Amino acid sequence: MNRIAIFLALTILFLSSLLTACDKAPKLTPLESDAIILAFGDSLTYGTGTQNPKTESYPAVLSQLINRTVINAGIPGEVSQLGLERLPELLQQHQPQLVILCHGANDILRKQNISETEKNLRKMIKLIQQSGAQVVLMAVPDFNLTLQPADFYQRIADKYKLPIENTIISKIERKPKLKSDNVHPNTEGYTLIAEKIAALLKKSGGI
């Protein structure tokens, strides 16, 4: 086999592996036009750092981008254990078709037991799925020098086969111009989060 044939064979093999990987990427059932989406989390969901969270938080911007109702269920300062306790009532009240789960930042900042944080998130996901809703997971960084996403988020996403956005918040945390303080995004930062989530929903087939 000459070099050109070898090159073509390797190229085909590489492209086939990419297509296989794409096929295995977690997918969502398409959301109805009147679907309710619940954005559940802490201050990063609430929109702390903007002048008007009702219009400038990522759930508010996302609602405009995808033309769906997105309920902002963020509570500033909440740790994952309290989020786990709060979640069932919201699921019953709103009956969402999709929950965007972004939790755990306060656990990390307060140096709580991360294995417990992971357990709490897993329990949240089970509650959401038992309610009939789908889940999209958002990762937050380890608040250290590297600001890499905490590794348990990808582990959870792999376990439950969830679409995950695991880069944007870490990216924002590294750029002071996208933040309103040491932790929280500003309006531009929240807009970037909304755009990333919208792109993930499209990629995974949700919209």
State the gist of this model.
This protein is α/β, with parallel strands linked by helices and 207 residues long. It has ten helices and five strands; from the N terminus they run αβαααβαβααβαβαα. It has helices spanning 3-24, 43-46, 53-56, 58-66, 80-94, 105-109, 114-130, 151-160, 168-173, 187-203, and strands at 36-41, 69-74, 98-102, 134-138, 164-165.
The spatial strand order of the largest sheet comes to 2-1-3-4-5
Q: Write down the domain tally.
A: 1
Largest sheet: 5 strands, parallel
Work out the strand percent. Answer: 5-15%
- Tell me, what is the CATH class? Alpha Beta
Q: Please, what is the average pLDDT? A: 92
Which structural category fits the helices and strands? alpha/beta
Shape: globular
Secondary structure tally: strands: 5
- Distance separating the two termini: 46 Å
Order of helices and strands: HEHHHEHEHHEHEHH
User: So, CATH architecture?
Assistant: 3-Layer(aba) Sandwich
Write down the CATH topology: Rossmann fold
Low-confidence stretches: 16-22
Tell me roughly what share of residues is in helical segments. 40-55%
Q: Report the C-alpha radius of gyration, rounded.
A: 18 Å
Tally of helical segments: 10
CATH superfamily: SGNH hydrolase
